[in-house]
Structures are given as structure tokens and as C-alpha cells.
Specification:
Blueprint: E1 11-15, H1 20-31, E2 35-40, E3 54-58, H2 64-78, E4 83-86, H3 101-129, E5 132-137, H4 163-183, E6 188-195, H5 208-211, H6 222-233, E7 244-247
Parallel strand pairs: 1-2, 1-4, 2-3, 4-5, 5-6, 6-7
Helix pairs in contact: 1-6, 2-3, 3-4
The chain binds nicotinamide-adenine-dinucleotide.
Length: 254
Amino acid sequence: MYAAQFLSGRVALVTGGAGGIGAAVSEALAASGCQVVAADLPNRLGATDTGGGIEHVALNVCDASDITHCVQGVVQRHGRLDILVNVAGVVSVGSAQNITEQEWDRVIDINLKGTFLCCQAVIPVMKQQKLGRIINIGSVLGKNGGNPRPWLDPTEQDRAGNVAYGVSKAGVHIMTSYLAKELAAFGITVNAVAPGPVASAMTTAFPQTLKDLIPVGRMGKASEIASAILFLASPESGFVTGEILDVNGGLWSD
Ligand SMILES: NC(=O)c1ccc[n+]([C@@H]2O[C@H](COP(=O)([O-])OP(=O)(O)OC[C@H]3O[C@@H](n4cnc5c(N)ncnc54)[C@H](O)[C@@H]3O)[C@@H](O)[C@H]2O)c1
């Protein structure tokens, strides 16, 4: 079992830290004794004042120099960076026929390239420490081809994640596998959590017909995603790497 403050002395960077899941992850890490830097877009700062052990900083994960500056700042202020949780992301809805090239690029840039750039930025720091935990947020939609059933109800497609979103998250999953192998010899684990539908700003339009498909009978809570992340962030999870952990209420298993 874990000691109450089992992450005492550790430092974590959580991107998307002002969002539903990001705030829950930040709170869970801080409650476990970790110093947390919760990073989000400048216009989101102050949206969630989570208090003790959590420092809020501005970060756009689409801007490589912003990421470098953010990571350097964490190390300068706190002396190390042990845990990176890549939570920043956006959803996209609507049909493959109608998605614009700009929307495709926006989703891939934030969800996939942004996640990669954040991973890349922490590698030298974690290698030097010979210790690191990288946890990415994928999605069930990166595995199951999407939840909407347009052959039954065309409106579902307009209220749930689409092909661009699913492709971005499938990319996050395979990136996780690659980095896990590349970094395993340096004491760095790389894993992902693949949530099913979680109640947050991202899912306010999620149709009831799709909620009804979740075997546990409800959407997930952000705190339930945070609990899975806490395990992957823990010192005891050192033999788990390259795992894409489903946390989806039974919606999909592989
Ligand atoms: N809610 C769900 O059902 C669900 C399911 C599977 C996966 N996810 C994933 O979980 C993560 C968090 O989602 P959430 O439900 O908390 O949504 P959310 O919208 O509450 O949080 C997303 C956060 O990411 C931030 N963000 C967006 N673009 C950014 C950028 N360029 N730079 C920095 N930050 C940026 C937003 O400002 C926001 O605070 C996302 O990656 C999402 O794809 C969510």
C-alpha cells in the first residue's frame, strides 16, 4: 500500500491543468505530497484555484519555445521534474465529410504534436535524474473507431469525438509505446491512460444514447482518471511501461 505522502519530494508538470481532468490530476498529485505545476493556456489561468502545492503557469503546448521555457522554469524553481502528465487536449466533432483541413490540423497539433513536444522537452531532465514518469492521456476513441452510430442516429456524430480526434489519440497511444522502449533503460516509464466518456467541459453535448452504452451505467469522474494516473506516477509502478490503460466503464476492452 502507499504511504499517504508517497510522492513527497517529487515534482510534476500537468499540462491542461486548469481543465476538468487536469485539475483533478493536479489535486490528486498534490494530495500525495507532490509539488505540482499546473500549466494551461493563459486565458484559463485562475479558472480553477486548487490551492496548496499547486502552482499555475501559462503554457501553449503548440509552441515549442513556450514548452522549453516552461520546463526550464520548473527545474529552476523546484530543482527537478519527475512526472509529466500530458492532459492538454481538445475535442472535435462532426463527420469526416465535413471536417475542414484547418480543424484537422488544429486537433493533431494540440493533441498529438503538442503531447510529443512536451515529452521531448522533459527527456534530457529525466535522463539526467535517471528517473521519470511520463503519462499521456489517450482515449477509447483512439482504439474503437468512435462511439457515434450514424447508421442509427446521424445526430450522435455531431456531439461526440470524430475521426480527427480518434486519430490524434491513436497517435498518442503508439507514441507512448515508442517512447517507453526508447527510455526504459534510463529509469523513465512512459504510459497512457485511455479514458472513456468523462463528465467535463469537453463532453457537455455528449448524447444520452451514447451514455446508455457504457456498461457501468454512467460517465466517468475526473477523479477516477486521476486515480489511474496516480498509480502510473508512483515509484511502485516502475515495471509498468508502454501500457495504454483503459479507464472507460467497460465501454471497450482489448
Ligand atoms: N472528457 C472526456 O470524456 C475525455 C475522454 C477521453 C480523453 N479525454 C482527454 O482528456 C484530456 C482532458 O480533457 P477534459 O475532459 O479535462 O477537457 P477540458 O476541456 O476540461 O480540459 C482540457 C484542457 O486542455 C487545455 N488546452 C487546450 N489546448 C491547449 C493548448 N494548446 N495548450 C495548453 N493547454 C491547452 C484547455 O485549456 C483545458 O483546460 C484531453 O486530452 C482529452 O482529449 C477526455
